[in-house]
Automatic annotation (TrEMBL):
Species this chain originates from: Lactobacillus acidophilus (strain ATCC 700396 / NCK56 / N2 / NCFM)
Protein's UniProt name: Putative di-tripeptide transporter
Pfam family, one: DUF4931_C
Annotated ranges, domain DUF4931: 8-133, 139-249
Family matches, as InterPro entries: DUF4931, DUF4931_C, GalT_short, HIT-like_sf
Amino acid sequence: MTNDPIVFQMSVVKNKPQSYRKDKNKDICPFCDVENLTDIYAKDGDIIWLHNKFPTLRDTLQTVLIESSDHNGDISTYTKKYNRKLLRFSLQCFERMNRDDKYQSVVWYKNYGPHSGGSLIHPHMQIVGFKNVDGYKYIHPNNFEGETLFDKDGVEVNVAEHPVQGYTELNINLLNRNSVDLWADWIQSGAKYLLNIMYDGRCDSYNLFFYPRNDEGICAKFITRFDAPPYFVGYKLSQVNDEMTLTKEARRFKEFYDNDSKIK
């Protein structure tokens, strides 16, 4: 397997808005300035899918999905009804782009927090079409498998035994498209769990990746963001916690979801 990196266009970055850099004006948020948004593909209330004005990657179509008008919102803070609406809309946008033959692959992901690799605080996801790159070439079916804590009604949830990066990753698998709302509920609880329970609340950033499965399903994978371990940075070797820790995490996440679902 050859390593064909995607090309980052540095010249585009100099004008790109930034929320986390000290030398940037944090009072200006392009996603709050809804009246001046352009190149909109689809819209449902406050949810807006549009072209990314700062395409930093060569040979791609980069799009942004603004989740909410709440500048400090997140999946973990939306109402249950709103989060379901967001996930249904986002999935439709991803599938629409994924059907376009001009892309070799299409990826869909979300950055949250100062250590996530994102540039703007305002809640958004990204859907990117790669014209010449397989965005999933390093991803394997067992990355979506693990210590199962829920498997019912077309949704399977587990703590990954073969993580993409490590150490603890949550997989929320949509196996039946009629179960999107239940899938959305688990994703929302996953965001809350990562930010408040896992690592005793020390995690302030995460990535949420969405992967097409070979069985036509979708895996939503949460990866906590701290400093990346050197084995992954230098060798692309992921690490996983021991079996006892994975079992404990699966039990705690299931208990959290059960309690969380009662108060919604």
